[in-house]
Amino acid sequence: MTQMLLILILFSTFSPFCSPFDGARVEIYRIGSKGEVTGAELVRRELQRDRIRLACFSANAAANVRVPVPVHGAVGEYLIDLSIGTPPVTYTGIADTGSDLVWLMCQPCDLCSDFLTPTYNSSESSTFTVPPCDSPLCENLFVENSQASCYLGNCHYDFGYGDIYTQTYTSATGVLATETFTFQSSDPVAVPNIGLGCGNASTMYFFNSSGIVGLGRGNLSLISQLGVGKFSYCLTSFVDTTSASPLFLGSLASLNSSATLSTPFVSNPNPNNTYYYLSLKGISLGSTLVSIPSTAFALKPDGSGGLIIDSGTTLTLLVDEAYQPVTQAIESVVNLPIDDGSDIGYDLCYTLEAGSSPPQMPSMTFHFDGADMDLPAENYMRPIPDLDLWCLAMASSSDVSVFGNFMQQNMHILYDLDNEVLSFLPAQCNTL
Ligand SMILES: *[C@@H]1O[C@H](CO)[C@@H](O)[C@H](O)[C@H]1NC(C)=O
Ligand SMILES: *[C@@H]1O[C@H](CO)[C@@H](O)[C@H](O)[C@H]1NC(C)=O
Ligand SMILES: *[C@@H]1O[C@H](CO)[C@@H](O)[C@H](O)[C@H]1NC(C)=O
Ligand SMILES: *[C@@H]1O[C@H](CO)[C@@H](O)[C@H](O)[C@H]1NC(C)=O
Ligand SMILES: *[C@@H]1O[C@H](CO)[C@@H](O)[C@H](O)[C@H]1NC(C)=O
Ligand SMILES: *[C@@H]1O[C@H](CO)[C@@H](O)[C@H](O)[C@H]1NC(C)=O
């Protein structure tokens, strides 16, 4: 409700009108599902991106800056198509619960690397406006992006990050604009004056997307700007390359089942922090509780540590004091030759006999505060058919832990921000 009020205030600054936005369904699909990159190469790129992203989470968690996570070889990703402008044009962006601003590459783009999808041309839209520096939208940008600046009366973002692999500095810059977004509900609903980053330069490397769709907690995220208070998504199986995954916004986001379990979100001590933290108490494999120190997943007073649920990281990343005992538990139940998986960036893989199926594995349970999430082997062990490998979809992290999208397959996950709880229900996502 407070978010709805905030949005009304933001809108009223620019326009006397505010279309009521109740809810919508948007399709999400996985990069790679259109066959651009396949097999082991796909897997390799996913994990390269995970590592860069993790470095950013750790750097930003406690710091007074929030930059969108870097998008570099962005293949382990889910994409959303959004209709933007008047008349509406469809653009594809990366669905990212780890950042806020929705931004697209715009024309003219003097420095754009490999943007393979259309770039947005503001001259072709009658609803493109650029708010002044003293507008509430710009104030929110200054909170999200410490490098934002006021230039010729308008505010500009500058998201920068270091690439831990190439040791280079890369960035995405642009002006903060506003646009009309159109959603398909029972009828199309046009929502005016949504803050939209219009990029003029980026050295980030994208595949099959024109930008990022931020779904984080901050005031500039699509969720906050629509004022919906809740959203849910259900990611289809990684091996399903044809079905789209539904994203429900607002009133359509609901888990109608008595089997739904819920766990509270945990607040980072830094009020500017945009990530969704959960309280994880422990992990079991089958009926055996893995021996993990009780403080392993705790958020520290300085805002570091903790466990984030993220739509944009593939693997589940655990601090080493949890990761090591979990891998030992896996090794104690799998009786296959070990392959170190390093060729494809994994940490622990098993060699399968050519063409054979993986052995039965017990489910893994994540004991969240008040809600045990049972994960079948398909949600934590990844077959790599090209290579006859079967790999643990987890890796070690030095500071923050991340619940990645591989584990979220076929789980309908509701982010209920009005009530500060995350709810979930196992589901066949391709049937919703
Ligand atoms: C993009 O715009 C910024 C101002 O926001 C300007 O400083 C920069 O030079 C522009 N970059 C390119 C490549 O046009
Ligand atoms: C943008 O749209 C305008 C108006 O249709 C057109 O004149 C211009 O060439 C377009 N710019 C680019 C870079 O496509
Ligand atoms: C949050 O962001 C604002 C604006 O950039 C800044 O003044 C404030 O110090 C930040 N708060 C914290 C706790 O970092
Ligand atoms: C997606 O990106 C790949 C390059 O990674 C390119 O070959 C392919 O044509 C793109 N597909 C679409 C639909 O843009
Ligand atoms: C849940 O129930 C509500 C109200 O009956 C309905 O609008 C919504 O579509 C249902 N959601 C799902 C995911 O079935
Ligand atoms: C969001 O906006 C509200 C109202 O302007 C402000 O109080 C709050 O600090 C902002 N939150 C963040 C994280 O910027």
From TrEMBL:
GO CC, alphabetical: extracellular region
Biological processes per GO annotation: proteolysis
Gene3D superfamilies in the cross-refs: Acid Proteases
Alphabetized PROSITE patterns for the sequence: ASP_PROTEASE (PS00141), PEPTIDASE_A1 (PS51767)
Matching CDD domains: pepsin_A_like_plant (cd05476)
One of the record's GO molecular function terms: aspartic-type endopeptidase activity
Catalytic residues, chain numbering: D96, D310
Sorted UniProt keywords: Aspartyl protease, Glycoprotein, Hydrolase, Protease, Signal
First and last residue of the signal peptide: 1-20
Residues covered by the Peptidase A1 domain: 78-425
UniProt similarity note: Belongs to the peptidase A1 family.
PANTHER family documented for this protein: OS07G0533800 PROTEIN, OS07G0603500 PROTEIN-RELATED
Name of the protein in question: Aspartic proteinase nepenthesin-2-like
